[in-house]
UniProtKB/TrEMBL annotation:
GO terms for molecular function: phenylalanine-tRNA ligase activity. The keyword Mitochondrion does not apply. Binds 2 magnesium ions per tetramer. Its EC number is 6.1.1.20. Tetramer of two alpha and two beta subunits. It catalyses: tRNA(Phe) + L-phenylalanine + ATP = L-phenylalanyl-tRNA(Phe) + AMP + diphosphate + H(+). It is found in: Cytoplasm. This is Phenylalanine--tRNA ligase beta subunit. Keywords: Aminoacyl-tRNA synthetase, ATP-binding, Cytoplasm, Ligase, Magnesium, Metal-binding, Nucleotide-binding, Protein biosynthesis, RNA-binding, tRNA-binding. Its main location: cytoplasm. Mg(2+) binds at residues 455, 461, 464-465.
Length: 793
């Protein structure tokens, strides 16, 4: 909320500079976002009167005016504004004045006619954004020769406060003044609001069919208003400094009362109302054209203001176009109501709206303000537009108004929470200044929360109020008495952050998708999956909880491919959901997807596309981070979403924990994808396991390496062969590396040549050829017996 500092100080004015006042408000929990001047800097501008106007001899669009600036000397000014007229009071920049933007006024000749100053527009004075077509016409009561800046009170600041949702009571000058008064122990003096005597007996019938959502509705007929009247400049300025544009006097006054007291109001054109006002729920399919010109279809859970012909406004949000006040309006029906926060909460957003009224009603408006606001608005309307008020019609359901809330506050609990003893008189004074009724009890006090504080319901709320008003910075700083011990750090575990950094280092980008996915997409990828279905999904495409990370990654792939991104590397971590609600397993997973070229486009890069083994290498880099890569295995498997023959089951210490594979061609065709993609997902718990590194002294003795090329059946998994070799290679084997797989000339059909490098090293002596030859013979013999392998060549 924005407000003028001068306006606030009319209610309560502590002896504080602007910044000190802003700091005090912030420390009280009402955070100040910005403090800005209400107008840019300028000097040398006074109130003047146009005494003569004549056509410029050489320019059709220019006038030569004589201006009395109160100095006793008439000034000649060339003015191009179309609205300049004799007798107007205007802001006049004398020769030597400096306008915003460091624009200096000098004597000048325009088309041969001397000009001794400038009649200013609002935009030239920085009081209006954009460019004004005409000059700023002042009220006839403006004092001639008075310094314009001082007369307008432009040495003022706009303070913008970012209120938390629980402090809707401060969305008004009255609420903010109450806070400042409490903080500085000052009395608050607002304008006197008197009951307006009815000058006629006409009433407009009001029916409230939903008192639970609208416990109080107040209305009054005012006849003979002059909508063409001019809103007073002081009111226009206060609205401007609060971020609201002046429209017409009726709308301006309802907006002004809302800013002043915090009660949103609305005025209907009486000629467009029929039979009676009814507060009810909308009927299914009922339509309404709003004040902004937008036509909407109302839902049956929306509270509306209606008459016998249909809806007139969304209650607490926005009025309708056809019942609003226009230039032809003469009689109005003034509305002021209390809608419960739950009746309005979320309604504006569901229609794509956000209004000052909905912002306040959602947070809670004081139900005691409705009648006061009507009287205040009526008085202002009579002053500005004339009009004859009728009697107030007050339809109140006392059973549905918020009940009084009495809260027990214990002195011992207060002292314990604050860490200090707050004097009883001081505590009572703070609570009473906040508008609460306080009664002494044996243990402390019994406090009644005021009608405007919807956020005060329990003892802790009262303690918070006392702490913030007393001053958080005045509370004692004490060390906790509890013994604090550090938790042991699980050094064996790999934190998710390290795994994410590794994926980024491998060229992947992190994706974050919803935990709910399309039932059709999940059924395509995981036909047998069972996961919870949402009772109230955001949309039909987000109706079930994901049973895998694959659907979200596939959707992200489609999104990128549709935007001409051909090389894609994505990973995601999150929960997947298996089973029904009664037996639901929530499993943290980490998954990834890659498609497109293996290397980024460049002169040194090839054009090969990424394949199964590229992504397997990326996944193995994650597995190796735990320091126990030997605990992991990849076994052939079958997955409904993955390509047969290019699918691996990921095992950790013999347990199945994930999948790796290329997207199934049939699935790819059904999804309309034109490129291959390789995916994986692994349980995060298994990825997080690791071992503590241990120091092993480096051997000073030479390594011995033997290379073997074994011919084996082409269907034999290489991992099985590697396991056999490790069993026979002995304890001094330090490295076993697969460096080539060959099929072709010189190798029988149905076979493949697997080239392996084996390295041995003894920690305390040099190995001899006889020992190595025995190990090699054992390897060849065992692999022949187990797999039919033979040495190539």
């Amino acid at each position: 909320m924005k407000f003028s500092e001068q306006w606030l100080r009319e209610w309560v004015s502590p002896q504080l500079a602007t910044q000190a006042l802003a700091d005090q408000i912030t420390m009280a929990g009402l955070e100040v976002d910005a403090v800005e001047p209400v107008a840019e800097g300028f000097a040398g501008v006074v109130v003047a009167s146009v005494t003569h106007k004549a056509q410029h001899p050489d320019a059709d669009k220019l006038n030569v005016c004589q201006v009395d600036d109160g100095s006793g000397e008439v000034r000649q000014v060339v003015c191009g504004a179309p609205n300049v007229e004799v007798g107007q009071k205007v802001p006049f920049a004398r020769v030597g004045a400096v306008l915003p933007g460091d624009f200096k006024i000098k004597r000048a000749k325009l088309r041969g006619v001397e000009s001794q100053g400038m009649i200013c527009s609002a935009s030239e004075l920085g009081l209006e954004e954009g460019h004004s077509a005409g000059i700023f016409v002042l009220p006839a009561s403006a004092p001639l020769g008075e310094d314009f800046r001082a007369w307008m009170g432009l040495d003022d600041s706009t303070i913008e406060v970012d209120l938390t949702p629980n402090r809707g009571d401060c969305l008004s000058i009255k609420g903010l003044a109450r806070e400042v008064g409490v903080l500085n122990c000052l009395a608050v003096a607002g304008p006197a609001i008197e009951t307006q005597v009815a000058t006629h007996d006409d009433r407009f019938t009001i029916h409230v069919s939903d008192p639970e959502r609208c416990p109080r509705y107040v209305g009054r007929l005012i006849k003979g208003v002059d909508v063409g009247a001019e809103t007073p400049l002081w009111m226009v300025e206060r609205l401007r400094r609060s971020g609201i544009r002046s429209i017409d006097p009726v709308v301006d006054i309802t907006n002004y009362v809302m800013l002043e007291l915090g009660q949103p109001m609305h005025a209907f054109d009486l000629d467009n109302l029929h039979d009676a006002i009814e507060v009810r729920l909308a009927r299914e399919g009922e339509r309404l054209v709003l004040l902004d010109g937008q036509e909407i279809a109302l839902r049956d859970d929306t509270l509306v203001i209606a008459d016998s012909r249909g809806a007139l406004a969304i209650a607490g949000v926005m009025g309708g176009e056809h019942s609003g006040v226009g230039l032809e309006t003469r009689d109005i029906f003034l509305e002021s109501a209390f809608f419960t926060p739950l009746a309005v909460a979320g309604q504006a957003r569901t229609y794509g709206l956000h209004t000052d009224a909905s912002h306040r009603f959602e947070r809670g408006v004081d139900p005691e303000l409705t009648l006061m606001a009507v009287e205040r608005a009526t008085a202002l309307l009579r002053e500005v537009t004339g009009g004859e008020p009728g009697p107030v019609v007050d339809v109140t359901s006392h059973d549905h108004l918020p009940p009084s809330r009495w809260i027990e506050l214990r002195a011992a609990r207060l002292e314990q929470a604050l860490g200090m003893r707050l004097e009883s008189d001081r505590a009572v004074d703070i609570l009473q200044r906040l508008g609460m009724s306080v009664t002494d009890t044996v243990a402390g006090w019994r406090v009644e929360a005021p009608s405007w504080r919807f956020d005060i319901a329990i003892e802790e709320d009262l303690i918070e109020e006392l702490a913030r008003i007393h001053g958080y910075n005045r509370l004692p700083v004490r060390r906790p008495l509890a013994r604090l011990s550090l938790r042991p750090d699980g050094e064996r575990r790999q934190p998710l952050s390290r795994l994410r950094h590794q994926m980024v280092a491998r060229g992947y980008q992190e994706a974050i998708s919803y935990s709910f996915v399309s039932p059709d997409l999940q059924r395509t990828l995981l036909p047998q999956a069972i996961s919870p279905r949402l009772a109230n999904p955001i949309s039909s495409d987000m109706a079930v909880m994901r049973a895998s990370l694959f659907p979200g990654l596939i959707k992200a792939l489609e999104h990128n491919l549709n935007r001409q991104q051909s090389r894609i590397r994505l990973f995601e971590s999150g929960l997947v959901f298996h089973g029904d609600l009664d037996d639901l397993a929530q499993i943290p997973m980490l998954g990834g997807l890659a498609c497109g070229s293996r290397d980024p486009e460049g002169w040194a890069g090839g054009r090969e596309t990424v394949d199964f083994y590229d992504v397997k290498g990326d996944l193995e880099s994650l597995l190796a981070m735990g320091g126990s890569i030997s605990a992991w295995r990849f076994e052939p498997g079958e997955h409904p979403a993955l390509h047969p023959g290019q699918t691996a089951r990921v095992l950790y210490r013999g347990d199945a924990v994930g999948w790796l594979g290329t997207l199934h061609p049939a699935v790819r065709a059904e999804l309309g994808l034109k490129v291959d993609a390789v995916l994986f997902e692994v349980q995060l718990e298994a990825l997080s396991q690791g071992i503590l590194p241990e120091f092993i002294p480096l051997s000073r003795y030479p390594e011995v390496r033997r290379d073997l090329a074994l011919l084996v059946d082409e269907t034999l998994p290489v991992q099985s062969l590697l396991d056999c070799l490790r069993e026979q290679a002995g304890e001094w084997l330090t490295e076993l590396r697969l460096f080539d797989v060959y099929q072709g000339k010189g190798v029988a059909e149905g076979h493949k040549s697997v080239a392996l490098g084996l390295t041995w090293q003894h920690p305390s002596r040099t190995l001899n050829d006889e020992e190595i030859n025995q190990l090699v013979d054992a390897i060849v013999t065992e692999s022949k017996q187990r797999f039919g392998a033979r040495l190539r060549g």
